[in-house]
């Protein structure tokens, strides 16, 4: 089930991505509304991260196109923010927490110029939002996994964008932090920003997202949570993984939420 | 001990070269590209020979341009082999620089009667001849050692390059994809860094030789990284180590009457091994960081 919207913030048309001849995303075609907290769900290897990377032109696209704010990516880079997977960088890099968060402002500073007081203030505000203000001067090699993740989110916030793409921002994050960050994301969407999150925990996805994209090489579903979370679509997304499916039905039962009633 | 002008010139020039190499080496190390620096320093040989052949002298601008082009070419070939032909990075480095270096040696032998260049000069260099290799102006006026001027110019350009692009170099070294996303020309910055490494290699090879340039690119940054986790301290410590290596290397070589460049690298290696040994015994001693290591509160 794929629900399309008028005047979308992000429009993907017939997108196909392949690595070494073998496609990892087939004909993905969807459009997303502004001001929503959007979750991308799917099993491992479903192409969730690839979809985010294709939107940001970080992987070559075999077919189709992506339009953001009805424009080409290069025209709207300053309005898009990106949180890569935490493992994609070497945290042994000699930089402080403040240094990394300030990197979010570099796109707006331009070549050859140095960040100044204004950029430092933005970075401090963003660190406060993720509750890391007391770690400003700490070296990033001395942080725990959850703290590294919060630093990355603060860096994305420092970009002051309208569209946020986050690749597994909750991997290795404890429950308290996860709740706090989800609250922050909900505040952002309430302020009109659009946040797209690659997520693997179906349980918390049900609690927080407004709009859900289900992906398994093909696009299985894209639409408001109440309409797309059905046992049939979850089964289609997660395939024959029976263990997982029982877990899903358990969760649905526990939450006293039966989509089949809808 | 009286002031020895020759000793001062040699140490001064060697320090300049170590600092230039160290500054670039810090970023090469952070990009996990130290071995690419090694590859470039060898791969520039055909460029040097062709430049030498075209200009007829090793002082020509053509030599530097030729080496620069070959350095970039080596980087492009390595990247192409790694990304498109799916050859492992270490293998693609090994294939690329040995091939280009071999072409350089063949060219030297073919043009041997036309160019005053041999591979020993390129590979080993000899900084001890520096005080007698003078820059004589057209009016016949001696301006002092030619290589010292080259080293000063090289350091000025390297320092300006790193000062201007400090923000971009740091960001793309830490997280290249993020740099691309916010619209930084990450590929161009990478190639610019490789060109600076090529230029530094050429500028320094007469003094310390291509092999020893590699050591100066790798060893001081790697040693400094054992001691600090802060980028500005890392750069300062690398420069300090470069100067120390130049001074200690010169006097040790003087003592045992041996190669100065060789002794410089030997001193660097010993300092590195000492540091690594010390850190393996006392892993928590660190300086240059702004915070002490203590248990995190959450």
From TrEMBL, chain A:
The keyword Cytoplasm does not apply. Transmembrane segments: none annotated. Keywords: ATP-binding, Nucleotide-binding, Transport. GO terms for molecular function: ATP binding; ATP hydrolysis activity. Residues 10-242 form the ABC transporter domain. Signal peptide: none annotated. CDD domains: ABC_Metallic_Cations. Pfam families: ABC_tran. The keyword Transport applies. It comes from the Bacteria. PANTHER family: IRON TRANSPORT SYSTEM ATP-BINDING PROTEIN HI_0361-RELATED, METAL TRANSPORT SYSTEM ATP-BINDING PROTEIN TM_0124-RELATED. Belongs to the ABC transporter superfamily. This is Manganese/zinc/iron transport system ATP-binding protein. The lineage of its organism: Bacteria, Pseudomonadati, Bacteroidota, Cytophagia, Cytophagales.
UniProtKB/TrEMBL annotation, chain B:
It is found in: Cell membrane. This is Manganese/zinc/iron transport system permease protein. It is a multi-pass membrane protein. It comes from the Bacteria. One of its GO terms (cellular component) is ATP-binding cassette (ABC) transporter complex. It holds the Pfam family ABC-3. It comes from Algoriphagus chordae. The keyword Acetylation does not apply. Belongs to the ABC-3 integral membrane protein family. Its main location: membrane. The keyword Lipoprotein does not apply. Keywords: Cell membrane, Membrane, Transmembrane, Transmembrane helix, Transport. InterPro entries: ABC_BtuC-like, ABC_TroCD. One of its GO terms (biological process) is response to zinc ion. The chain crosses the membrane at residues 6-27, 39-57, 63-81, 93-113, 147-166, 178-201, 207-227, 234-253, 259-278.
């Amino acid at each position: 089930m794929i629900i399309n919207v008028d005047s979308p913030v992000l429009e993907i048309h017939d997108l196909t991505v392949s690595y070494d001849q073998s496609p990892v995303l087939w004909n993905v075609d969807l459009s997303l509304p502004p001001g929503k907290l959007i979750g991308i769900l799917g099993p491992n290897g479903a192409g969730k991260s690839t979809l985010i990377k294709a939107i940001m032109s970080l992987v070559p696209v075999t077919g189709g196109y992506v339009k953001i704010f009805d424009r080409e990516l290069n025209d709207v880079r300053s309005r898009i923010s990106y949180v890569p997977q935490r493992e994609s960088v070497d945290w042994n890099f000699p930089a402080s927490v403040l240094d990394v968060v300030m990197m979010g402002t570099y796109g707006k500073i331009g070549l050859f110029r140095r960040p100044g007081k204004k950029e430092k203030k933005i970075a401090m505000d963003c660190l406060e939002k993720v509750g890391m203000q007391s770690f400003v001067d700490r070296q990033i090699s001395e942080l725990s996994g959850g703290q590294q993740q919060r630093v990355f989110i603060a860096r994305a916030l420092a970009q002051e964008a309208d569209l946020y793409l986050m690749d597994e921002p909750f991997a290795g994050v404890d429950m308290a932090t996860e709740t706090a960050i989800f609250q922050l994301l909900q505040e952002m969407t309430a302020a009109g920003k659009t946040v797209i999150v690659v997520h693997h925990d179906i349980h918390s996805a049900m609690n927080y997202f407004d709009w859900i994209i289900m992906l398994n090489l093909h696009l299985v579903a894209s639409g408001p949570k109440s309409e797309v979370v059905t046992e049939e679509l979850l089964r289609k997304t997660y395939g024959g993984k029976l263990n997982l499916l029982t877990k899903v039905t358990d969760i649905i039962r526990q939450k006293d939420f039966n989509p089949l009633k809808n | 001990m009286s002031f020895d002008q020759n000793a001062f010139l040699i140490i001064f020039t060697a320090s300049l070269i170590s600092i230039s190499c160290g500054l670039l080496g810090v970023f090469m190390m952070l990009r996990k590209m130290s071995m690419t620096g090694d590859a470039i320093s060898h791969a520039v040989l055909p460029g040097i020979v062709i430049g030498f052949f075209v200009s007829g002298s090793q002082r020509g601008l053509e030599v530097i341009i030729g080496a620069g082009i070959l350095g970039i070419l080596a980087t492009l070939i390595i990247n192409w082999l790694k990304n498109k032909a799916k050859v492992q990075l270490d293998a693609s480095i090994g294939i690329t620089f040995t091939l280009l270096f071999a072409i350089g040696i063949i060219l030297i032998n073919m043009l041997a009667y036309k160019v005053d260049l041999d591979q020993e000069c390129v590979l080993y260099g000899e900084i001890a001849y520096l005080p007698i290799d003078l820059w004589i102006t057209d009016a016949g006026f001696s301006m002092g050692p030619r290589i010292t001027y080259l080293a000063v110019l090289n350091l000025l350009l390297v320092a300006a390059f790193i000062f201007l692009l400090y923000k971009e170099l740091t960001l793309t070294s830490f997280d290249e994809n993020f740099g691309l996303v916010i619209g930084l020309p990450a590929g161009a910055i990478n190639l610019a860094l490789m060109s600076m490494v090529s230029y530094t290699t050429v500028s320094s090879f007469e003094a310390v030789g291509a092999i020893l340039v590699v050591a100066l690119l790798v060893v001081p940054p790697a040693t400094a990284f054992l001691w600090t986790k802060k980028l500005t301290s890392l750069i300062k410590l690398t420069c300090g180590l470069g100067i120390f290596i130049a001074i200690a290397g010169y006097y040790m070589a003087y003592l045992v009457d041996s190669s100065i460049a060789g002794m410089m690298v030997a001193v660097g290696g010993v300092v590195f091994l000492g540091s690594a040994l010390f850190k393996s015994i006392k892993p928590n001693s660190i300086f240059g960081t702004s915070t002490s290591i203590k248990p995190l509160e959450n």
